[in-house]
Structure formats: C-alpha cells, structure tokens
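Hey, resending since the last one bounced:
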Amino acid sequence: MTPIPTQFDVPRNTFYSTFEFHVNLVTISGADVVSAFTPGFAGKIIKMYWVTNTVTTDINGAATFKPYIGSLLVSGGVVTIGHVAGDQATLGLVVNGTSVIGSNVFSNIDTLKIVASSVTAYDDGDGQLVLVLAMNVL
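The structure tokens again:
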C-alpha cells in the first residue's frame, strides 16, 4: 500500500477553513477591502491568494492586498496583482501571496481585515481574495 503524499499531512487536531471575498477591481482604492471580519475561533492565518474571475482589459491596473489582525499587519500573505504581469489577463489564474512568516495568530474575538494599497485604478475586472485560516482544537 502506497502512503498518502506528505503534502496532505495535517497536524493532529488542526482544521482549515477558507474564506472568499469578492473584489470588484473598479471600486477598490487604498483602503479596507474587508473590514472587521471575525472568524469566531482562535487560529492562524496560513495564506492568502487571488483568483481572477473576470479578466481585465486595463493594461495599467495594479493593486496590493495585505492581511491584518486588528491593526497589526501580518508578516507575509501579501498579494500583488497587475495586468502588466499577466495576473489579470487569464480567467481563473491564481496569484499566491507571499509566505506568511509571523504575526499571524488571532483569538476568537479578534477581527481580521484586508487592506488594498498601491492601487492603480482599474477600468474593469474582478476576482476573489481567498484567506486560509487554521483552527487548532485541543
């Protein structure tokens, strides 16, 4: 019998949840894209990524999205998209955020938010920001 590959190994009593947030690129600015989201459990931010839903024809659009726990910027998880890099030219394209390396632990009452920055206006296009969270159960 062949063992299951190691990428499927999950620490005991750890559960993962994904939360998807729709983002219309026309309406974003340098402000909160998601404000005061409370998962309702204690855990960690594992990663964040972008999935293109509607391709853009705008060759100049760009944006960076950063996850926060309250007012504390998470170390990593930053997603940068831009048509010039091809991130918005392909339907369904996944753009992974940077590796989360710290400041990513939250309590059951903490609020999470995602902030857009370095925004160059888009004329069209949209997608999903996906936040992956881990919940530990003892």
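The chain is about 0% helix and 50% strand.

Sorry for the duplicate.
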